[in-house]
Each structure stands twice: as C-alpha cells, then as structure tokens.
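for the writeup, i need someone to sanity check this before i put it in the appendix. the sequnce is what the collaborator sent (i think, or maybe the updated version? ugh). structure was predicted straight from it, no edits. if anything looks off just tell me and ill rerun, i have time this weekend
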Amino acid sequence: MALGDGTVVAIHELSRASRLLDGRPALLFHFAFLTKDRVGSLSDQEYVERNREISDMVASIVEEGNVSGVMLASSGAVYDHLHGGKRDAAASLYGRLKAEDDSRFEKVCGARNVRLVAPRIFNLSGPCMNKFDAYALSAIIVDVLKGGPIRLRADKRVLRSYFYIGDLFELCMRCLTDESMQGAAVRFDTVGNEAIEVGELAARVRVVLNQPSMPIERPALKTGSEDRYIGDPSGLNALLARYEIAPLALDAQIAETANYLRDALGGC
C-alpha cells in the first residue's frame, strides 16, 4: 500500500501476524471488522460468523505474541445494543458484535496484563475517511467542493459532534505507552467540543470553505423526530486533561477534512 507521502507499507494476511512478529514486541491496532454497511449484503448469520472469525484471529495474536498494548476501535453503536436503541436493525446487530469484542478483548488482554484502549467511536473528522457519501460531514464538504448545491436528505433533526482523528490517535498512543495505565481497560466515547445539527453544520462548512451563499437543499423537517448520535464526554475529557491535549475545534476540523477530500477528489 502506498501512503500519501510516498511511503510503501507491506500488507500481510491477518492469520500470519504472529509468525511475522516472531516474538518482537508490538502494539496492536485492531480495526479489522466488517462494518455496519455490510449487514445488508450478507445474511445475519454470515455477518456474525465472518466477524467472529476475525475476532478469533486477532485474539490469538494477543494470546500468542509479545503484544504490550491493544487499541480496539469500538463504536458508539455498542450503546444501540447495551441500551436497546432503536436507530435501525443493522446498527443493533453491529453494536452487539462490537460489544462482544469489547468484552472479549478486555478478558484476553487482562489475562496477559496487556493494556487495552477501546474508544467508542461516534463521529470523526480529518484525513483518510472513506465512503464520502455515507457520512454527513464528508458528504456536505464534497457538495461544496463540487460547486453545490449542498443536499441534505434528512427530514428530521440530526445532531452530531465531531472529534479529530489526529487527536484520537495521539490520545490512544498516550494511553498505550503510559506505564501507570496498567490494569483496567480504558474506554471513552469520541465527542467534540460542540454538538451541531446537520443543517447548521452545512452552513458552517460553506463559511469555512468561503462559499457563504451556496444554496442548501433539504426536505421540510418533521416535528418531534430527532436522530442524536453523540457520546458521553466525561471519560474523554478526563483523559484529555490528564495528557494536556487540546482537541481541534470544529472549524479547523472542517478545514482539515476538506483538504484531504480535495486531494482525494483530484483537487476540485
């Protein structure tokens, strides 16, 4: 795989990881998971089986290798399972499997005295995002970069809060390399400094990208209906204070995300 700066990184099958490490110390970043958008293309049974096979392989790396810390990319969808949320059936199934992974890796890492950091990811900003049409922030930015109009599909209030990917990785690395963090798993929700409705987000994006008069098209809003996907900031704020990390403000997050998307779209 060629990275943006030209660095070439070798990609290997997950099942070969323990042999490739050959006893060398390692931090393990676990992102290997079929995401929620795949639920519709597989039967529920196939979706569950494939993700459990991935979980088995990754757990074996922790059990057999010289791993000192694990970052497990969890999800805000865990709460759809834990709290019986009704956002949609796919989120509930995805959340159940993510909750199972949370519990499994806490046990696996605890048994080997391996640090576990498991951020429950809600909404991220910044470079290297994919599926531009699937997320509100990237879809809005792409509309602006392509000359508009900004098209919003939601006919109800949609509330989000964005956390910058660079701040997330800095925080996780601080936790993984902090000798005093041995013991219990570290969990936190990703939450930005402000919550924002997507209509307000669209207006904010066009200002940051110097297109303040670009039209915003949206269906009439239904009253009494709201989609709120925002985590609890308490755990995150305690860790940010501990490591003296000042998270990127929303306008700067928009600008950084737009810079990446502009390059990904060929400089439009």
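The longest helix spans residues 89-111. The chain has a mean pLDDT of 91.
thx in advance!!
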